Amino acid sequence: DAKTTQPTSMDCAEGRAANLPCNHSTISGNEYVYWYRQIHSQGPQYIIHGLKNNETNEMASLIITEDRKSSTLILPHATLRDTAVYYCIVRVEHTNAGKSTFGDGTTLTVKP
Amino acid sequence: DAGVIQSPRHEVTEMGQEVTLRCKPISGHNSLFWYRQTMMRGLELLIYFNNNVPIDDSGMPEDRFSAKMPNASFSTLKIQPSEPRDSAVYFCASRLIQGSDTQYFGPGTRLTVL
Q: What is the per-residue pLDDT for B40?
């Protein structure tokens, strides 16, 4: 699976959009981009995933660049409860290979 | 759905004792993962099963660790003998192989070995 690079930490004002970048320059054509987050003392939680088209769900939007070498997770109106570590992972979908390497992620702090 | 269930939520034991962590995956899921999380090493994959069969245990730290999945609804992770450096939060996750790769994590077991 391709390696990802994320900033160590970011701050965001409550009510504003939080834009979390992820670099995955070695991504393969059949690898998807997945985002998870981990709120303190809880298990990681799935947020969203995509291949090459932008995706949106009730939690967030995922913007993937045309060359697929980077992506941005957007939380449109961040709340204090969005304070968490956000992990960007790339991997092939629909395989028996279950490994997902969680790197260090980005610690997002939403401030009042 | 109750989600992934793990027990116990907290475990405190003394060095040398046997520890057994338990996991019940989401009903219908056919892939199960065990992770360990520490401040120093982050979230590490220990082992995963597909259809109750261990596929990759290369993340298991040493022979003191063993994992079983006797049926589709239950898995155990055993540490014998336990050591202080095994202190961590252990997460279980499950997914549906035929679906997306979305993994659903349990609440974790916080293990402290004194």
A: 87
